[in-house]
Amino acid sequence: MNRLSEWVIRLEENRELAYSLIRIYLGVALFLRGLMLLSNPSAITTLAGAQQVYMGYGYIIGGHMVGGLLLAVGLMTRLAALLQIPILIGAVFLIHLKQGLLASGQSLELSSLVLFLLLVYVVFGAGRWSVDNRGHRKGVTAS
């Protein structure tokens, strides 16, 4: 067997790592989005096109920051993803859908992808490389 074949086989044997890396990336990205919104709260009203103070600031910022960190480490993963789904439903259907597909910022496509990934983690959980799975192996129910 040549080196490329061995490398491909090794990658195939570690698919769980890829699933976990996507979760970690998603969690860090959501945390950073929350941090960005915390440092610039008017960005939410700019995105939403509203001039009045948006009542969901705390939920959006807290959901992204706390939920993002929990997703990144794989702790209470299903709950962390579930709490962010309303935020992404709002982003997709109330804000970005009006802009349409292939808008300059591609926000609809990106928000839809994030919503889809959150749904995947709600259904399938954190994966092997997570705090949830470590607790599950010790007899604790993973979330």
Detailed description of the structure:
- It is a single chain.
- By secondary structure, this protein is mainly alpha-helical.
- It is built from seven helices and no strands.
- The protein has helices spanning 3-13, 15-39, 42-48, 57-73, 77-95, 107-124, 131-137.
- It is globular and about 60 Å long.
- Residues 139-143 have low confidence and may be disordered.
Main features:
143 residues, mainly alpha, disordered C terminus
Condensed summary:
The chain is an all-alpha fold. Helix content is 73%, strand content 0%.
Sequence of secondary-structure elements = HHHHHHH
Count of β-strands? 0
Q: Briefly note the structural class of the backbone.
A: mainly alpha
Total helices: the number is 7
Instruction: Please report which band the strand proportion falls in: under 5%, 5-15%, 15-25%, 25-35%, 35-45% or over 45%.
Output: under 5%
Helix content: over 70%
List the uncertain runs.
139-143
Largest sheet: none
Distance from first to last alpha carbon: 41 Å
Average pLDDT value? 86
Write down the Rg.
18 Å
Inertia-based shape: globular
